[in-house]
Amino acid sequence: MKLYPFYILVFILLTSCGGSKRIASVNNEDLKTKEIITSHLAASPEFKTLAARVQVVYEDEEKLQSITVSLRMEKDKFIWVKASLLGITLAKVLITPEKVQYYETIGSTYFDGGFALLSEWLGTELDFQKAQNLLLGQSIFALNPSGYSAGLFQNQYRIMPKTQPLNFIHSIFLNPENFKVISESLSQPNDDRLMSVRYGNHQKVGNGFYPSEIIIDTSEKGAKTRIEMNYRKIDLNVPVSFPFEIPQGYEEIQLN
User: Fold this and answer.
1) 155 phi and psi, to 5 degrees?
2) Rounded Cα gap, residues 211 and 209, in angstroms
3) What is the pLDDT of residues 112-169, one digit of tens each?
4) CA–CA distance, 195 with 123 (Å, rounded to integer)
5) What are the helix (H) ranges across 43-101?
6) What's the pTM value of the predicted model, to 2 decimals?
7) d(CA 159, CA 177)
8) 98: Cβ–Cβ under 8 A, 6 or more apart, which residues?
9) How far apart are CA 34 and CA 18, in angstroms?
10) Pick from 56, 48, 62, 60: which is nearest to 15 by CA?
11) Quick one: which of 43, 103, 111, 194 could link to 187 by a disulfide (CB 3.0–4.6 Å)?
């Protein structure tokens, strides 16, 4: 059975945000690549658990839909999502470093397996850490100073691979004040595929900075999709649980 694009996108979105290590304030002078990347890594939030309410707006060429999402997380272990509309559960997702579990109530379908479905849609290999970083305002990809170059560009720090892989172009722009991601883009020109992730002003919660707004734009062969996420509330280090059970009688989603 074909998985509705909306629910694939919910996977990506919810497939996170608490304190962060303190970093020295800097002015807009050029820093060495290693210092820029080290500062970005140091800006990654430190927390045990997170609970958030998120308003998600999904738009493609056929529909515009808004849903409320409950997000719970135990850092590096669990991402749990419940998508609702008018108080009715539409879908649940449970993501761990090992697997993705998901079901949706409208079509009575479920998925229980690895990250292949998400990776296929995104056009690049996806895992738990990349999904977590996406919603924390951190780079999706691991940044090794020996393989990247960085410098000041229009009052932002731009990071790019020294050598771009074939049919894969990747770039990141960082806020020079807090070293959080302002935007990140991935493109595969030969496949006419593009994904960009843009962040609004990061909000301070506790001692760290977290996304307040995330906009994900994707296009493939002319088909465009946009997802906007607005965090209404973020609570850190609170008791959370991750209830998840695939209902009986649901049909398993099969990958081609």
Assistant:
1) 65, 20
2) 7
3) 988 876 666 555 567 899 889 988 899 988 898 889 999 999 999 999 998 877 778 8
4) 9
5) none
6) 0.81
7) 15
8) none
9) 25
10) 56
11) 194
C-alpha span between 158 and 142 (Å, rounded)? 15
Distance between CA atoms of 195 and 230, rounded to whole angstroms? 19
Dump strand ranges (E) for 61-192.
Answer: 64-74, 78-85, 88-95, 100-104, 109-113, 148-153, 156-161, 169-174, 181-188
| DSSP reduced 3-state for 133 | helix
**CA proximity to 255, closest of 127, 120, 79, 75:** 120
Please report, as a single letter, which amino acid is at residue 197: V
| Cα–Cα distance for residue pair 64/29, rounded to 1 Å | 43
Measured N-to-C along each axis, helices 128-136 and 5-14 cross at an angle, to the nearest 10 degrees, of 80
In the chain, what are the helix, strand and coil shares in percent, each to the nearest 5?
A: 15, 45, 40
User: Can you read off the two tokens belonging to residue 77?
Assistant: 């272990």
SS3 state at 124 = coil
CA 18 – CA 139 distance, rounded (Å): 16
DSSP state, residue 147: G
Q: Which residues contact 125 (CB under 8 A, 6 or more apart)?
A: 115, 119
